[in-house]
Design goal:
Elements lengths: L1 H4 L3 E7 L3 H12 L3 E8 L6 H14 L6 E3 L15 H4 L23 H11 L5 E4 L4 H9 L9 E5 L18 H5 L1 H9 L4 E4 L1 H4 L3 E3 H5 L8 H20 L3 E3 L1 H10 L4 E6 L1 E3 L9 E3 L17 E7 L1 H6 L6
Parallel strand pairs: 1-2, 1-4, 2-3, 4-5, 5-6, 6-12
Antiparallel strand pairs: 7-8, 9-12, 10-11
Helix pairs in contact: 2-11, 2-12, 5-6, 6-8
The chain binds calcium ion.
Calcium ion (CA) binds next to loops.
Length: about 325
């Protein structure tokens, strides 16, 4: 398999755990195709204190002794503050299993998340891939802190957005996806920065469904880690079963990790991407992929980014057979 022949991909994971974040972290921490170098937490599925605690506990659960830093506690603009996603991920962000996570041996990194990102990227120019699966506030703060990192990051992969393909529109408004809506200004800054961004939106993540039987296969594996993931997903599955009747969960965040290992499972579409920042479409992600609108548009002059438009979901889900 290609991912095991080539050297492991160095990744900083920016996350708001979050149950599907935990599954993504399992791939990043435990799959031999990755070299996870740090985890940075951001508000989102819960307050940043909760997501940071979960990020540290999960990193310890998966046996990684790497820096974990706390990041933004809210969006760039105070007016964007929203209620959190306790109805989706539970009060502890992890479907009630956070108290069962191991106590991390390593202290919390003293730096704010954006500082850690800048330090690590500057220390290894051209090498680090950022995988961001929460609100993109930490990435926006990193760019504001040191704009030169845009030219030194190898690649940015984000889970977020919805482009209306295959009927997949927003999940917090008719057009807006949760990570974007949590901080639309940050998302727009990340998508228009001069670094290569791959956007893994609801268009593909809602096609990647982990059924109950797929999740049950994790049980008994990974020295307790698989069982904990199974238990955490019970709450998440109840939410999606009640709302969408899918008999499982969407592998939202894991898809952003998966595209690095099985790029051939995804079809991409190129073009600049902007985020609507006002009006009823606030939080909508819009790509100018036809490139026929001339100059002077909100898209012109911005870098062409990649949006996932199709996924071979079984290829993504099969990666979970390769961990633990
Ligand atoms: Ca997330």
């Amino acid at each position: 398999m290609d991912s095991q022949i080539s050297s492991p991909i160095p990744v900083i994971f920016d996350t708001d755990p979050g149950i599907d974040d935990a599954l993504a972290l399992a791939l990043l921490a435990c799959h031999p195709g990755f070299d996870l170098v740090a985890v940075t937490a951001v508000f989102g599925n819960g307050p940043v204190e909760t997501t940071t605690r979960n990020a540290r506990g999960l990193t310890a659960l998966f046996g990684k002794d790497i820096p974990v830093a706390a990041g933004a506690s809210g969006p760039l603009l105070d007016k964007r503050r929203r209620k959190d996603a306790a109805h989706v991920h539970g009060d502890d962000g992890l479907g009630g299993v956070a108290a069962r996570l191991p106590e991390p041996a390593r202290a919390l990194d003293p730096r704010p998340a954006h500082q850690l990102i800048c330090d690590m990227v500057n220390a290894r120019p051209g090498e680090i891939t950022l995988v961001a699966v929460g609100p993109f506030t930490n990435l926006a703060l990193a760019l504001a802190h040191d704009a030169s990192i845009a030219g030194k990051v190898k690649r940015v992969v984000v889970m977020g957005g919805a482009f209306g393909l295959k009927g997949h529109a927003g999940n917090v408004s008719p057009v807006a996806e949760a990570n974007i809506m949590a901080d639309p200004e940050a998302a727009d800054q990340v998508f228009t920065a001069a670094w290569p961004v791959t956007i893994v939106g609801l268009d593909v993540t809602q096609e990647a469904i982990m059924r109950e039987a797929d999740l049950a296969k994790l049980r008994g594996r990974g020295d307790g880690a698989g069982e904990l993931l199974w238990l955490a997903t019970r709450h998440y599955q109840q939410f999606y079963d009640a709302r969408d009747g899918i008999g499982g969960i969407y592998a939202h965040d894991a898809s952003a990790a998966a595209i690095l290992l099985v790029p051939e499972a995804f079809t991409l579409r190129a073009g600049p991407v902007r985020v609507a920042l006002e009006g009823i479409a606030t939080g909508q992600t819009i790509q100018d992929w036809r490139n026929e609108h001339g100059t002077g548009t909100p898209w012109s002059g911005h870098p062409s980014q990649q949006v996932c438009v199709e996924v071979d979901a079984p290829r993504v889900l099969a990666l979970f057979d390769e961990i633990f």
